[in-house]
Amino acid sequence: MQQILPSWIEDVDPLDIYPDDSRPAPSDRPWVMGSMIASLDGATAIGGLSGELGGPADRAVFRAVRASCDWIVVASGTANAESYGPPKQSEAVVEARLRSGRSAVPRLAIVTVSGAIDPTIPAFTHAADDRAPEQRPLVISGEQANAEKLAALNAEIVRLPAPAPQPGTVLNELHRRGAQVVLCEGGPTWNGKMVQAGLIDEICLSISPILAGGTSSRIVAGAEHAIATQMRLSRLLCEDDLLFARYTRA
Q1: What is the DSSP string of the chain?
Q2: Nearest C-alpha neighbor of 26 from the set 181, 154, 196
Q3: Residues 6+ apart with CB under 8 A from 238
């Protein structure tokens, strides 16, 4: 993989650079990363799945981004559609995480308004990484969530004292649990809530060399009104005609 910016490097391993990036958490909340892939025309999925846009290079960057956080947060719709599983790390990823002062394995949090999460997705049915066997997923909901559906999940449940979980209260809960860096993996509607709340510090965007067409959402969708958040291009990598951009808040 080549690094184009901030300086040219012929051959880089994303795992050698992403976990060591500076991510200074504010005093009252974690640093928030967003990680998404999009086609040249802005689609975030083909046939409902983001994996159709990527390839080996995207998976390598995805692993490196996940090596950089304490918690992974995903909305229930994306967890269902992508059949989310428990975070599992290769030995190389574990080494990178430990080198940068993190735990061996990040923890997964799923955010839901209704509680309608498929209890058979691997996140609830597959064993956690044996380096963190006690870590069941955390499901964060509010007062509107169906109690019976939540009870059917093999997860730790947190019901926030509000009708629905909001970005600020979700981050407060993770901050209370010691999170310094939180990675949001979507979907676009949850990303929209995060942008609307002004809580995105970093975007790791994979740009696929595909023209997708169709009606797929943008990486941020559903925000009530436009929010112009200026970001700065901190790094750009390239392999197999994909671009991997790291933007941080200007």
Answers
A1: -EEEESS-BSS--GGGTGGGS-----TTS-EEEEEEEE-TT--S-BTTBGGGG--HHHHHHHHHHHTT-SEEEEEHHHHHHTT-------HHHHHHHHHTT--SS-EEEEE-SS----TTSHHHHSPPPTTSTT-PPEEEE-TTS-HHHHHTSSSEEEE-SSSS--HHHHHHHHHHTT-SEEEE---HHHHHHHHHTT---EEEEEE-S----TT---SS---SS-----EEEEEEEEETTEEEEEEEE-
A2: 181
A3: 1, 2, 4, 244
Residue 152 has a CB neighbour count (10 Å cut-off) of 15
For residue 100, give both structure tokens. 């940068």
Pairing mode of beta strands 71-75, 181-184: parallel
| pLDDT tens track for 152-170 | 999 999 999 999 999 999 9
Share of the chain above pLDDT 70, in %: 95
The answer to whether 195 and 220 have CB atoms below 8 angstroms apart is yes
Name residue, tokens 């990486």.
219
- Tokens 């967890």 identify what position? 79
d(CA 33, CA 245): 13
Q: What is the spatial distance between Cα 51 and Cα 92, in angstroms, rounded to a whole number?
A: 22
17 has pLDDT over 60: yes
pLDDT in tens, 67-79: 999 999 999 999 9
